[in-house]
Amino acid sequence: MATQLKPTIECSKEEWQARLDLAACYRIFDHLGWSESIYNHISLKVPGEKDTFLINPFGLLYSEVTASNLVKIDVEGNNVGGSPYMVNKAGFTQHAYFHKHLGERADAICHVHTTATMAVASHKDGLLPTNFYACNFQGQIGYHDFEGVTVRPEEGERLVQNLGNHTILMLRNHGPVVMDRTIQGMFVKMWALQRACEIQVATLSMGNPNLVPQAVVDVHQRDLSVMSGQGGAGMFDFEAWKRRVDKIDDSWRS
User: What is the pTM of this model?
Assistant: First the structure.
């Protein structure tokens, strides 16, 4: 088992745990092939603080992110943690608006450009009920038309409006934004969405898909909600993948 390192920066015990979880999440995403060079983001609210969150340093690969080099910023973009690193404006603008306006529903957020999720985001019908995982999300995804790189603050209002009451926003021709109250819940949601998109891409490549009827989707989602508590909303999944990346490289703990 990896050694639990003490904080190498000044912060609360709760913030350090959040830093550890977020750094681990970056390494897990990278291991699963969900990173995109130095781009894209996973952000996490700082526990016990108002309007501050942690995000990756711009210029580092996901495999280089550690608990101590994560950047702490407020929702106005100010570096409040003393980090020498800058953050990517495209990531800050979008993530900050969600953190500021959606409360705990968006305490943990990721935005990815995986091939499968971007392909589905670029399909006119979005995510279809073609498979087990896709049925999890029917009626639970918002869609936002492509407006270019998300660096303009005024787009934030439209992003939130198109998200509605959901926790996944598919940016058309771009990629998904996935959010949750916890980083564990966000991770397992992203994992299932990725699988749904991968299978849809494979299925549509073979021709006409066999779509699951809405009545069956409703039953599936009802039963899934009963089962979801058993896994601790992604806790078991997240801890399992932390063990996996620890075996490869546990420097994320530093």
Answer: 0.93
